[in-house]
Amino acid sequence: MKEVKFYYCEICGNLSYLLNEGGGEMVCCNQPMTLLQAGVTDAATEKHVPFVTRKDGMIEVVVGEVEHPMVASHYITWIACVQGECVKFVHLHPEEAPRAEFCVKEGPVAVYEFCNLHGLWMAEA
Ligand SMILES: [Fe+2]
Hints:
3% of the residues lie in helices and 44% in strands. By secondary structure, the protein is mainly beta.
């Protein structure tokens, strides 16, 4: 499975996905960006860990087992599906449902989501 790395700027909020690892430091606003770790924020896991169901070559992702709020001040900004070398994103907006569907192959899948207040979360399915 492809290792995915997300970097966050603590100053401006820019969030970046590392497409190619070149070895240099990720910098934004003149300081190093933070390499995000999934699930390290002290927040309700049942509202943040992606809840994944698989059916007929698709997965449906809901954030989370108890649906996460989707208001302008607190919402899921994107959901990503990683399988092998394939990485897919769905970007979300306030008032939308915190859900996404992805076509997948047989085999393990990692699903990431980002909450604008509570950071990065991940589940494997
Ligand atoms: Fe949250």
